[in-house]
Write a structure and sequence with these properties.
Elements lengths: L2 E4 L3 H12 L6 E2 L1 H6 L12 E4 L6 H7 L7 E4 L16 E6 L17 E5 L2 H12 L5 E3 L2 H29 L10 H10 L5 H4 L9 H16 L9 H15 L3
Helix pairs in contact: 8-9
Length: 254
């Protein structure tokens, strides 16, 4: 199975490193060049699988621009783009969605713990998708578009929004003698707990205890940081989030 990757971004870089770690050399092609001057980025005629690891906004355009034999299996890595993005000129197609946070600056070469969610139209393409994905990870699952979309939303809450909370926590501590690193044992402990407890059961804090006095005091602190002389917070959003999330926790606590 001869593979090529279109893209040079976060996901593309990690996929390239992961295949290389398995002894599979996979060329990386420039999506920009394919769109602007395809003669400068020829796709080898021996290619069996094309992996599109580009952002969702340009994915349809890049797919339309590619001209290869009908036998080639086309695979995109998006969690939200449907199979219908492929035209009639690409009858063999699928989705390989590696569920992880990727960064070009720190690529992931070992996909052993990375779950990969796949989808394809026909049984032969599904079989090929399993072969492709199992070359990287033992954790391969079939998932429909609707399921991948919900997984993507869940990932935003579990990962992206969580990191945003870290940013707010860092801002709250800015100007004090306490470094953000003081929070790391707490962050690590909280993340470790949900490996053995349901998130609902792992929840702690003043909202769980319905401690209105502490929550009101915290809101006073956040509003003071927003308007005080040091102005560690430049927006009312942290206070609003504190209030909304506390209400959600309190309302959904047994």
């Amino acid at each position: 199975m001869r593979i090529a990757i279109i893209g040079h971004g976060n996901v593309a870089t990690s996929l390239h490193e992961a295949f290389a770690a398995k002894g599979i050399q996979v060329p990386m092609l420039s999506a920009h060049t394919l769109l602007t001057s395809p003669e400068d980025e020829p796709i080898s005629e021996s290619t069996d699988v094309l992996i599109y690891a580009v952002c969702d906004t340009v994915l349809p355009e890049v797919i339309r621009a590619v001209r290869v034999p009908l036998r080639v299996l086309h695979v995109h890595t998006s969690g939200t783009v449907p199979l219908s993005v492929y035209g009639q000129d690409k009858p063999h197609c699928g989705v390989m969605y590696p569920f992880q946070s990727f960064s070009k600056a720190a690529p992931i070469a070992d996909f052993t713990d990375v779950p990969i969610f796949i989808e394809a139209r026909g049984i032969d393409d599904i079989s090929a998708m399993y072969t492709l994905s199992l070359a990287l990870s033992p954790r391969v699952f079939e998932a429909s578009q609707a399921e991948r979309e919900r997984l993507h939303v869940a990932g935003v809450f579990a990962n992206n929004f969580t990191n945003c909370m870290y940013r707010i926590a860092a801002d709250v501590l800015a100007g004090t003698s306490i470094p953000f690193s003081a929070l790391l044992p707490l962050i690590d402990r909280t993340a470790a707990k949900v490996h053995s407890l349901a998130p609902r059961d792992a929840q702690t804090g003043p909202a769980v205890r319905h401690d209105a006095e502490v929550m009101a005091h915290h809101l006073d602190i956040l509003r003071a940081l927003q308007s005080g002389p040091n102005k560690a917070l430049s927006t009312p959003v942290p206070a609003a989030l504190y209030e909304m999330l506390s209400a959600y926790i309190a309302d959904n606590t047994k």
